[in-house]
Amino acid sequence: MSKTQEILQDDRATQRQERRVLVLATSLGFFLFLAVYLCVPGVGPIIRIFSNPSGSMLPSLPVGNYLVVSRASYGYSRYSFDSFELPIAGRWPALMPERGDIVVFRLPRDRNTHYVKRIVGLPGDRIQMLQGRLSINGALVPIEPAPTPASMSGEKRTAPTYVEKPPGGASYHIMKGEGVNGPSDNTQEFVVPPGHLFALGDNRDNSTDSRHQSSAYGVGFVPVELVIGRVVLTF
Q: What is the rounded distance in angstroms from the CA atom of residue 199 to the CA atom of residue 208?
């Protein structure tokens, strides 16, 4: 083989190596861009990541956990994104959360604030708390003691924990630190208006939620269009 042929062969090998590096770098860059685009707060069309700063959803969601929220779970509304509003009314497609879903929503009285709660009431439902028990449409929701009590946030003591099973097949844990003497263990009956939801924290004696209807500090009924999405993963 001549010197010239050796040089040409080396050049071709170098070019092939450079092309492989370019393809690899382009692929990695694309997947990195896609991951950032999907996950960055306020921008990604499918996934939104939130942090959980409070103990209102104990024992289901520990304080400080990150929540992966699917924007696409119930369709999109004009309030689905942080930095802009979509030019649509209602939700598209018009999907509805189910009882037992944990969702993130914009607080009705302050749409810049996000809350995470569990949906227990759908439009038309009659919701009431009776001695610490959830009642839906006139029937107490079945509960049973959980195998082990849960720890209170930031404390060594534990609290009684129960498995609650509302209509529809959902099953989840709730915490009752104050027994039947909590501040919101006995309420009036709430009728959920059309296009709204009733949301509760799993830490029933330490949660501001739909039981609290005050325009100054409460949550009240949650308009469906203010729901950002369903919590699908925590870490």
A: 10
- Name the domain count of the chain: 2
- Residue-wise pLDDT tens digits, 94-140: 899 999 999 999 999 999 999 999 999 999 999 999 999 999 999 99
The range of the structural domain enclosing residue 10 comes to: 1-39
Is 56 an active-site residue? yes
**Of the residues 56, 60, 207, 210, which is catalytic?**
56
Q: What are phi and psi of 163, to 5 degrees?
A: -100, 120
Catalytically annotated residue among 60, 77, 117, 207: 117
pTM above 0.85, yes or no: no
Both 3 and 79 in a single domain? no
Distance CA 113, CA 136 (A): 28
Same-domain pairing of 179 and 146: yes
Residue 73 known to be catalytic: no
